[in-house]
Write a structure and sequence with these properties.
By secondary structure, the protein is an alpha/beta fold. The protein has a domain of 214 residues: 3-Layer(aba) Sandwich (Rossmann fold). It is built from nine helices and 13 strands. The strands form four sheets. The protein has a seven-stranded parallel β-sheet with strand order 3-2-1-4-5-6-11, sandwiched between helices. Strands 7-10 form a two-stranded parallel ribbon. Strands 8-13 form a two-stranded parallel ribbon. Helix 4 links the parallel strand 5 and strand 6. Helix 3 runs parallel beside helix 4, helix 5 packs parallel to helix 7 and helix 7 packs across helix 9. The longest helix has 22 residues. The structure holds nicotinamide-adenine-dinucleotide (NAD) and uridine-5'-diphosphate. The site of nicotinamide-adenine-dinucleotide has 28 residues, from helix 1, helix 3 and strand 5.
């Protein structure tokens, strides 16, 4: 067996911790790099006893050097609450983090995958979104530090590929949920589950008629690993998401039903620039990666709710 050396930035976060676990299970050596802004040691504490796992405290806005075969670049807060806390730092993380990791990939001749986002489509005027859609993004709004930071990172990835032949892969991730989301993360699935388990009011923003397509984290990790292994020259961007689309109100009702909660639904103001709808077209991932999501929303919610019950009890 060939033991690859794999660097995962943002590895102590929600998605990163699942990815590190998967890569270790496949027999790789994993370097998990994180500044612990939104990530936590508890997400990877179960991996610390593995001699092929290394946890490194580092901020991707400053250069980092290591020998590796592959780099997954996930470092960036993903929840609006956290990425809006210090928008300048969010932009620096996306842009300088991309430059530092691409520079490293170029120097050590590593393959590098960027965790991009469906937010590059902004408030989309095309539905569902295909990779060829350029997006409808406000450059000066509340979400811009994240959306434009990720768009700039995509540009850098493509330019390092064209100018320096760096072997790059870009995945555009749609809303993902699952165990190890931070309870205070502020994203809709974790908010609703925490509220339902505590019998607190469920906070629906706006009228709850906006839609999202929710992907279980194991499906995402499978897509990322397949993308990294895809044939040389296939750069993406490729959408990785679950095309089953739900209104936020439908999600609230599902969570209440599964948790058997006494929570009531209350309405709060819709944040500015909140996209009205979002649903991936995943034809490209199906054709190029032979990938499609396997876990439906009900099954994924049941697993996620079990996790939150375990951390509250
Ligand atoms: P998360 O906030 O749980 O994880 C992000 C990780 O990056 C955290 O561990 C955080 O501490 C770390 N980090 C942040 N800034 C850093 C910096 N400057 N240097 C080093 N580490 C830093 O979020 P997540 O949901 O796990 O998202 C992981 C990646 O996937 C992000 O790049 C995000 O933009 C992308 N993504 C996630 C979703 C989703 O629904 N979860 C959707 C689209 C894209
Ligand atoms: N949302 C909500 N209540 C909450 C948190 C979020 O109604 O407690 C809504 C939010 O306005 C958005 C959707 O749920 O329309 C998804 O929000 P999230 O922050 O999870 O992801 P994003 O908006 O980045 O897709």
């Amino acid at each position: 067996m060939i033991r690859k050396k794999v660097l995962v930035t943002g590895g102590a976060g929600f998605v990163g911790s699942h990815l590190c676990e998967r890569l270790l299970n496949e027999g790789n050596e994993v370097y998990c790099l994180d500044n612990f802004f939104t990530g936590q040691k508890r997400n990877v504490v179960h991996l610390l006893s593995d001699p092929y796992f290394e946890l490194i405290r580092h901020d991707v806005t400053t250069p980092f050097f290591i020998e590796a075969d592959e780099i997954y670049n996930l470092a960036c807060p993903a929840s609006p609450v956290h990425y809006q806390y210090n928008p300048i730092k969010t932009m620096k993380t996306s842009v300088m983090g991309a430059i530092n990791m691409l520079g490293l990939a170029k120097r050590i001749n590593a393959k590098i995958l960027q965790a991009s986002t469906s937010e590059v489509y902004g408030n989309p005027l095309e539905h569902p979104q295909t990779e060829s859609y350029w997006g409808n993004v406000n450059p000066i709004g509340e979400r811009s530090c994240y959306d434009e930071g990720k768009r700039a990172a995509e540009t850098l990835f493509m330019d390092y590929h064209k100018q320096n032949q760096v072997d790059i892969k870009i995945v555009r991730i749609f809303n993902t949920y699952g165990p190890r989301m931070h309870p205070d993360d502020g994203r809709v699935v974790s908010n609703f589950i925490v509220q339902a388990l505590k019998n607190q009011d469920i906070t629906v923003y706006g009228k709850g008629q906006q839609t999202r397509s929710f992907q279980y984290v194991d499906d995402l990790v499978e897509g990322m690993v397949k993308m990294m292994a895809s044939s040389n020259g296939f750069t993406g961007p490729v959408n990785i998401g679950n095309p089953d689309e739900f209104t936020i109100m439908e999600l609230a009702k599902k969570v209440i039903a599964i948790t058997n909660s006494n929570s009531k639904i209350i309405y709060k103001a819709l944040p500015s620039d909140d996209p009205l709808m979002r649903k991936p077209d995943i034809s490209l991932a199906k054709n190029e990666l032979n990938w499609s999501p396997k876990i439906n929303l009900d099954d994924g919610l049941i697993k996620t709710i079990k996790y939150f019950e375990s951390i509250f009890n």
